[in-house]
């Protein structure tokens, strides 16, 4: 396989850990966190990814990823789709036999993301301050057998907004899973669970497993 040695990506960190979110929670995963983001969510827990990172060619990224005995790789950020060469990185990882997860904030087009990648796309709720930045046409590019949509919920208003969007866009039919994720420290798990149960929603509540396993503010886990 011919690997591009010229195209580079600005990388915040590359690390091996337990997947903390999505339906893949609990799986050992190699994370490639890219630097930079086009949003500024009020509850963002990876502000350090906004800082300048280190430039790596794709070949070097692949060498680091392949050091681990793991065939699941997640591309995250920041917002990875701000860097066009990430599409080539994803394509090569898939060709190398990796299961590739892509975390994206919903404000960048997913139209040209290589087939076979598992897209985990946020839909921003009001408390994020970023609802007006959503690209709603992205919903048309979701794979109903692979992709997942995530709502990060801080309060009742966020919850009602998320429920509205689930119904409006029939998300249960348009993606593999709809995830409701509480903002740590802003809403109790029990409260969100009761709302979901009382409304009979066909969604999946998720907690950030990595914050339970390790310290909430630690990097690289």
Q: Could you give me the name of the CATH homologous superfamily?
A: Aldolase class I
What's the architecture, going by CATH?
Answer: Alpha-Beta Barrel
Q: Counting H and I runs of at least 4 residues, what is the number of helices?
A: 6
H and E order: EEEHEHEEEHHEHEH
Q: If you average the pLDDT, what whole number results?
A: 94
Outline, from the CA principal axes?
Answer: globular
Top CATH class: Alpha Beta
**Proportion of beta-strand residues:** 15-25%
Largest sheet: 9 strands, mixed
Gyration radius, rounded:
17 Å
Terminal Cα separation, in Å?
31 Å
Number of strands: 9
Low-confidence stretches: none
**Helix- and strand-based class?**
alpha/beta
What is the total number of structural domains?
1
Give the CATH topology: TIM Barrel
Q: Taking strands numbered 1, 2, ... along the chain, how are they ordered across the largest sheet?
A: 3-1-2-4-5-6-7-8-9
